[in-house]
C-alpha cells in the first residue's frame, strides 16, 4: 500500500533514508527501531539481506554476509502452507525464529507508521509471501511481503500487521495476504478480521478486498433474491461490522420493510461489480493449500 502524497515522514525524522534490499534501492517512509550503535541516527543507506534481513550500514560487510548467508538458495524458513505459481506462502513461528522475525519486523517498520512490535515476536506467527524468480529454472526466490498474526487473539484478529514491500506493490499481492488470513479464520473456525484501528492506507486496502469478497458472496447464494449482512458474514468468515462497512461504501444497504436491520439485493451486487469492473475471482484458491498443513491447523480451533 503506497502512502498518499505527504504521508511519508520527512527525511529529517527518519533514521534511515534508503534501503538496499539485495540489489534494489528504494526510499523508506518512516523511522524504525534499529539500534543506534549499529545503524546511527541519520543513515543514508541501510543494506538489508533479502533472505534473512540482517542489516549493515556498510556495503563491504553486507556483501560479505550475502556470499555466506545460509538462507540463500535453500528452502525458505518455516513451513510451506500454500503454493500457486509463482507465489508461495510460508508460515513461521516467531518463537522458533526470533532473530529472523525481529529483523523482518525492524525492516517492515520502515514502511509502517503505526506498528512497532518487534520484541515480542514469540506470540506471533508470520506468513511470508515468496515469489519464484524468473527464469523458472533458477532456484532463486524473493520474499516480497508478509503478514503477522497473534497465536491467541481474544478479539479473534486474523491479522496484526501486513506489508507488501514497496518494489512489489500495486500488483494485487496484498489481496493474496488478506485472502490467506481469512482462510486461516475459516480453518480455525473463528470469524474474525484485521486488528483495529486500521491506518488510513490499511482501511483503503481492506475496503477494496471486502467489497469484492462481499459481492462474490452475495452472488454466490442461490435460491434467494435478497440476503442479510449476517448471512454474508457467515459466508465470508467476516465480522458483521466489516460487512456493513463494505456494503455502505458500495451503496448496497437497504432498510428492511419490517423490523430492524438491512437487506441487500443480488441484482444490485451484480450491477455494482460490473460498473466497477471488479473481478469476483477469489485471490486465493483453496486447492493450492498444502494438505498436511490443513490437517494440523484444524487442531487450532480448540487451542
Observed structural traits:
single chain, 303 residues, alpha+beta, five-stranded antiparallel β-sheet, four-stranded mixed β-sheet, 9 helices, 14 strands, disordered N terminus
Structural description of this entry:
With 303 residues, the protein is of the alpha+beta class. The chain is 32% helix and 22% strand. The protein contains 9 helices and 14 strands. It has helices at residues 36-39, 59-68, 98-109, 173-187, 200-220, 229-236, 240-250, 266-275, 291-297, and strands at residues 16-21, 24-27, 43-48, 55-56, 79-84, 87-93, 124-132, 141-150, 157-159, 161-164, 193-194, 226-227, 254-255, 262-265. Strands 5-6-7-8-10 form a 5-stranded antiparallel beta sheet, with helices on both faces. It has a 4-stranded mixed beta sheet with strand order 2-1-3-4, covered by helices on one side. Helix 5 (200-220) packs across helix 6 and helix 5 (200-220) crosses helix 7 (240-250).
Stretches where pLDDT is under 50 for at least 5 consecutive residues are 1-6
Along the chain, the helix and strand elements come as EEHEEHEEHEEEEHEHEHHEEHH
The total count of helices amounts to 9
Shape: elongated
Describe the secondary structure blueprint for this structure.
Blueprint: E1 16-21, E2 24-27, H1 36-39, E3 43-48, E4 55-56, H2 59-68, E5 79-84, E6 87-93, H3 98-109, E7 124-132, E8 141-150, E9 157-159, E10 161-164, H4 173-187, E11 193-194, H5 200-220, E12 226-227, H6 229-236, H7 240-250, E13 254-255, E14 262-265, H8 266-275, H9 291-297
